[in-house]
Design a protein that fits this description.
The protein has about 80 residues and is of the alpha+beta class. The protein has a single domain, classed as Rossmann fold. The protein has 3 helices and 3 strands, in the order E-H-E-H-E-H. It has a 3-stranded mixed β-sheet, with no helix packed on it. The radius of gyration is 16 Å and the shape is elongated.
Length: about 80
């Protein structure tokens, strides 16, 4: 059975590492929290109107989880 996900919670990371989950999307939640604050600052200081920023989406698999998991644990990803 192929199982996938849409976020990278600690349980999802464990599932990928242990082979129960084949892949999950990485929504780069840090940027989804950072950019709205940046937008507030830009609007207040420079009257720049709302921006549409695509934070992208990556795929996390057993092949790349070892690189991404430490960044998630640090709160960067």
């Amino acid at each position: 059975m192929i199982v996938g996900g849409i976020d990278l919670s600690p349980a999802t990371i464990d599932g990928i590492t242990q082979g129960y989950i084949s892949a999950s999307f990485d929504q780069v939640l840090y940027l989804q929290g950072y950019f709205p604050i940046q937008q507030i600052w830009l609007t207040k200081n420079f009257l720049i109107p709302g921006l549409h920023i695509n934070t992208g989406i990556g795929t996390v698999t057993p092949e790349n989880i070892a690189q991404i998991a430490p960044l998630i644990e640090q709160g960067v990803r």
